[in-house]
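Task card 7
Instruction: Convert sequence to structure tokens.
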Amino acid sequence: MTGIELDDACLRQRPLPTPEAGSKDDRGSVLVLGGCAEVPGAVFLAGVAALRAGAGKLKIASVRSVAVAMALAVPEAMVIGLPETEDGEIEAEAAAPRIAKAAKRCDAVLLGPGMNTCDLTTMLVRTLLAEQNATAYVLDAGAICGLGAHAETVRSLTCPPVLTPHAGEMAQLLDWEREAVEAEPLKAARQAVEMLRAVVIMKGAESWIVAPDGAHWHYSGGGVGLATSGSGDVLAGIIAGILARGADPVTAALWGVYLHGEAGAWLARSVGPMGFLAREISGEVPRILQGFSVSRAE
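Output:
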């Protein structure tokens, strides 16, 4: 397998938009939709990561039973409590109008962290994509697995979405065995791109990023410490934050993978190769971004 190696030199050819005004509106607004009663923390991790990546405003939409606690945990965010089922999932039909209203005013929307793979999730995602096809989307976790049956809805989006599947989610999307995805991750990512006309990040010990035009990049940094619960939510949030700043989907995906991986490498040196928490990853992102800013100034 070959591809462009994703490193700092590669990213210097794709500088991030830097807002010049002092308004938070100039840094963009992110909506993170997801979570359930059993997994409320995923949207917390993703939302904080979006802010750490430079987004100016944050909305979090999750089930009503966790809304107050979420608002206290993330006081920087506007929190939207959504109707939920008896099982603690977002009630798709009842919640859809409120979600659509919130998404309409955002520059980037992240769908899926903490959402289970089920018909309700797929219905909600498909409805939102169909109604607001000009939005910049990141699709993660439960938002990915059922997309195979709705490929035309995804392909019709004005802005190609960024997908962030791990091997299990990719296997469900493509109807492959997980072992087949793990054996040929680049092939799997290319097939998903062909199916959905999306930017696909095939996560793993080594990550592959494939663009709609077939260009692809390889990243092998980060280390084993990033294989921890919640790490993928942080990655998705970083990408959403960069999209909100005005980056195109491919640029946002590349920077997101690199920042997430390099944050893991920083933590491996300061904490240890394993044992740091997903909630600590996004805190390293501003320091890494500052390194690029200092180099440009020099």
